[in-house]
Amino acid sequence: GGVEHMSNWYILYVGAGKEDSTRRYLNNLIKDMGAFAFSPKSEKYFRGGGRLNPYVLANWIPGHIFVETDAIRDDFILSLRRADNHSRKIYNLLGKNYINFVLVPDDEKEFLKKFMNDKFIVTKSVGVIVDHRFVALSGVLKGYENLLKPIKHEHKHDRYVELEMVLTGTPRVLNFAIAIDPTLEEVTQKR
User: Fold this and answer.
1) Alpha carbons 187 and 182: distance in angstroms, whole number
2) Which among 120, 117, 125 is positioned nearest to 159, based on CA atoms?
3) FRET pair for 30, CA 20 to 30 Å: which of 38, 49, 123, 150?
4) Do residues 38 and 26 lie in contact, with contact meaning Cβ atoms separated by under 8 Å?
5) Are 29 and 72 a contacting pair, CB within 8 Å?
6) Which residues pair with 130 in a beta bridge?
7) Distance between CA atoms of 146 and 102, rounded to whole angstroms?
């Protein structure tokens, strides 16, 4: 196999709750530009509701849309503005001096990719909690437990763990859904 082609990821900052509508609007504009916008989702534990699957999909990094493109930033922005006839909407989205449109460094991009499937969904990990630490038996967190923050006792039943990372220069806390393996839960509690 040849050298894997590396495209750039950019983040477009949008208001929380506007991810899906903005992503659709962007994809409409850039579909002929060989670019693609996505907003990663993650499974999230939803207590109650008596549903068969208590996990729902939520925005993994609220307020962030990712754009994948081979184009360099300035060319892409120009094409984007042209595609929307230099409308106020795209100008407002990009912000003054395009401050809202930021390149994701390759190492951060590769790190994020480890946790998402090909539909940009972060699925839950199954494991146990030992001494306030989540130990993954399966799922995306397996092998990354040392990066997770300890679970505070009062959050034990919230079914998520937190991982801190720096994303485009800003510290962020990413949440990951977890499921506790019921066959092992009693074991860890009896000790």
Assistant:
1) 9
2) 125
3) 123
4) no
5) no
6) 133
7) 28
For residue range 15-65, what is the model confidence (pLDDT) as tens digits? Answer: 889 999 999 999 999 988 989 999 999 999 887 766 677 888 999 999 999
Considering the entire predicted model, what is its pTM?
Answer: 0.87
CA atoms within 13 A on the CB side of 66: 22
Helices 19-30 and 73-83: crossing angle in degrees, nearest 10, is 90
Strand partners, 36: 68
pLDDT tens digit sequence for 113-142: 999 999 999 999 999 999 999 999 999 999
What whole-number distance in Å separates Cα of residue 141 and Cα of residue 160? 11
- Residue 25 sits at the vertex; the CA angle it makes with 116 and 124, to the nearest 5 degrees, is 20
* Residue type, position 26, single letter: L
* Separation of CA 187 from chain center: 33
The tokens for 19 are: 């991810």
Residues 6 or more apart whose Cβ sits within 8 Å of residue 76: 10, 33, 35, 67, 69
